[in-house]
Amino acid sequence: MLTQVSIFIIAIAFAVLVIYLIKTLKAAQGSLDKVTQTLQEVQKTVDELSYEVKQTVRHANDITADVDHKLKQVAPVMESVKNLGEVLSEVTLAAKQASTALMTRLQKSRSAASSTSGTEKAIKSTGLNRPLTATERTVQSYNATYGEPASKSAKNWLGYVDIAAGVWQKMRQ
Question: Taking Cα atoms as reference points, which of 122, 155, 158 lies closest to residue 140?
């Protein structure tokens, strides 16, 4: 009888163990179902996002290509602006050198001036038969104001400047 009671207790213990194992397995199955459901939702979200990311990357590539194309079109303009800046720098340097040379010549002519005033020389050199040109009037006005005689090289230089300004205006038009 002791063996029968022992077998009976073992059978009851086994039955209790099986019941707890069934409960544990059902809880695990519920958890796995929830995990499966969550993974399906995550997969669906990832699929949707991957489509949107692909569209965004395509759009960014299109924008990059467009910007690159426009930059290539603007490059010659920038090169022209650079060249224009260099030309203007050279023109400024040339004008500075010319004005320095003119001032040097005017200072030399001032020191070597004769006793006659610049106004008298201008009237004598031009004669009263013809009207004065704009350049001659400018030189005469300058000489009358500062008492400097009008040198022939200054008149020639101012004439060249006047011609250059006229050519520049025609080129701009």
Answer: 122
Alpha-carbon distance 150 to 140, whole Å? 7
Q: Per the structure block, which two tokens stand in for 142?
A: 């300058």
Tens-place pLDDT, residues 51-106: 999 999 999 999 999 999 999 988 888 888 888 888 888 888 888 888 888 888 87
d(C-alpha 167, C-alpha 173), whole Å: 10
Please report where in the chains the tokens 């004598």 appear, as a residue.
124
Residue 123 and residue 129: Cα distance in Å, rounded? Answer: 10
Measured CA to CA, the distance from residue 118 to residue 96 in angstroms comes to 26
Token pair of 63 as six digits: 């924008």
Give helix 2-111 / helix 152-172 axis angle, nearest 10°: 140
- Residues 6 or more apart whose CB falls under 8 angstroms from that of 148 comprise 106, 109, 110, 113, 118, 142
Say if pTM beats, i.e. exceeds, 0.70: no
* Sequence-distant (≥ 6) Cβ neighbours of residue 144 within 8 angstroms: 118, 119
Side chain identity at residue 124, one-letter code: K
